[in-house]
Design goal:
mainly alpha; Arc Repressor Mutant, subunit A; two-stranded parallel ribbon; DNA-binding
Length: 109
DNA sequence: CGGGTGACCACAT
DNA sequence: AATGTGGCCACCC
């Protein structure tokens, strides 16, 4: 077994399903997994996802649309650049019209 | 083995 | 209204 740490695997699975040009939040994923209290773990899972190439962690931001994880990327602007490349406008490290681009797994999945 | 930290969020005061 | 604290679980020292 192994292989799957439940919570982590689920986070990866959902993160991979984030549509192009859309963003989601740690809390939304955690909530979707039924553990909104463990939003922190989602972030930690993303950290581990760094070794997972198929995890578009740049599409995951905190609940206010702030690129909380930009600091953990290869560079500091990579995350923003990726989002902008997908048509998402970033201003002051925050997603513009965040709710409009928000993709909630609990709603769409 | 124990403690502290962390890409967070929600509630309480 | 703003600030503080709690909670969750995994990983590092």
């Amino acid at each position: 077994m192994a292989t799957n740490d439940n919570f982590f695997e689920r986070v990866y699975d959902v993160a991979k399903k984030i549509p192009y040009g859309r963003v989601t939040t740690y809390g939304a994923i955690a909530n979707f997994l039924g553990a909104k209290q463990s939003a922190r773990m989602v972030g930690w899972a993303m950290n581990a996802s760094a070794k997972h190439e198929d995890i578009p962690a740049h599409r995951v931001v905190n609940r206010v649309g702030l690129l909380s994880g930009k600091h953990h990327f290869e560079g500091t602007s990579v995350m923003q650049q990726l989002l902008e490349a997908e048509g998402i406008q970033i201003e002051d490290h925050k997603v513009v019209d965040f709710e409009a681009h928000l993709w909630d797994p609990a709603k769409h999945l």
